[in-house]
Amino acid sequence: MKRLFLSAVLPAMAVSLSGIAHAEPTKAPERDKKFFKSVEGEWVGPGEIVAGKYKGTKFTCSFTGSTPGGKVGMSLDGGCRVGVFTQKMSATIEQKGRSYRGTFLDGSAGKGLDIVSGNVVDGRKVVLSLNRNQLNGVMQARVPDENSMHVTVSVRVDKQLVPVIGMKLSRVDDTAVGAIAKN
What pTM, to 2 d.p., does this model score? Predict the structure, then answer.
């Protein structure tokens, strides 16, 4: 059951952080471009399930964010580790009119989730609606500064949004690791 819950909720978290927009760059507002650009790079950090049966379960994620040339949006690839188990994650977001749609892994038709709508609130925050069968929720990703990102995934329970996952990611692409400096 724990694995089923994690496979349903962790993907939602990753979905919110990722995507490839297929809209014309001139049609996307500058705040959208600014947000997606700010998520480019290498991110790592801890997360925790903050509600429900698995409250207190901790995990660590590592993602690479990039923006496609000439398009507004981004892709995110990586994985999250819970104990000795690692779940590969990848996601896409496409701009559809004034909203965003996309999938995590293979979408709700497979083992993933669908992004059914979304909005870049400002240059620092995106809010996405998530769906998989009976599971409805919201993911918020906030980039308070150049080197940190906070992600919250909430699910709808009896007409109320209940936070389920919290993550604090740090940018690591400008950081030397040990004695090896980046070229």
Answer: 0.76
